[in-house]
Amino acid sequence: MSDPNVQEIRPRPLVVAISSRALFDLEASHEIFESEGLAAYQRYQREREDVMLEPGVAFPLVRKLLALNDDGVDHPGVEVILASRNSADTGLRIFNTIEHHELHVERAVFTNGEPPDRYMKALGADLFLSTHADDVRRVLAAGFAAAMVLPGAATGRKDGQLKIAFDGDAVVFSDEAERIYQAEGLAAFSESERRDAGKPLDGGPFKRMLQVLHEIQSSYPIENNPIRTALVTARSAPAHKRVILTLREWGIRIDEALFLGGKPKGPFLAAFGADIFFDDQLTHIESARPHVASGHVPHGVVNE
Predict the structure, then answer these.
(1) Is 162 in a helix, a strand, or coil?
(2) CA gyration radius, the chain
(3) Tens of pLDDT, residues 220-234
(4) Residue 228: CB partners within 8 Å, gap ≥ 6?
(5) Eight-class DSSP state of 169
(6) DSSP bridge partners of 203
(7) What is the DSSP string of 247-299?
(8) Which domains does the chain carry?
(9) Annotated active-site positions, please?
(10) What confidence category does residue 155 fall into, taking pLDDT thresholds of 50, 70 and 90?
């Protein structure tokens, strides 16, 4: 019999902080801000408090994440928190839209124009999604996973399964191998990866997020799982071995691994049906954007 005086320590939920422009289409509002200033923007939002916003690029992802809380399976769960540069006053339209779309988003941080990075630790955020490049960089520098969601397709399949794709180096893993490639070329990179195949890579900014997602995924059977992940990397043999052994060392399952050897990633991501793809290199993001929602991770040597 369990001791009633001992509290059970439960795994914490996956916490995703998201900006209002990543969640909803606020481009018309943003154009007012850019062309006419803050006062005009505030007036514009107040006058349209009861006019519902259209979904943004990351909206389908958020809806699928939150749906995991309603399937009756005992797992750590997902919490989505609004982290917006709006004020609470202008943010009322956003919350009205959240209620309209029946999204279970209860917590919000409205910073009235200030960067939200200082609140990430207090929120317990595992991931920050925004359309504001400087905010994303600041959150990454603070040690949290973050990505700039770029305009493009939001074509994740509507079968209910959540599909998330990750690049490897500088995203899931550190950029240690990428630094060798950039400094010394492909031959030196391949030799280094062959030599260090048995040495696990250090974690990148998305390691923790992937771990928490894996904990939720592990609450379901492998077959008929509502979450499916993919590693989509420009690596090829023999550099694949170190990646596989690193994930094994971490105890993290990746459902699909695509070692593309430099081929464009976009068509493969479309075939996978990703709800979102994270990559540190804009070249790969540009290939992905016509097919899937994409998040640029401005981290590592190629972004210095």
Answers:
(1) strand
(2) 20
(3) 998 889 999 999 999
(4) 161, 162, 163, 164, 255, 256
(5) B
(6) 173
(7) HHHHT---SEEEE-TT--SHHHHHHHT-SEEEES-HHHHHHHTTTS-EEE---
(8) 14-150 (3.40.50.1000), 162-303 (3.40.50.1000)
(9) 167
(10) low
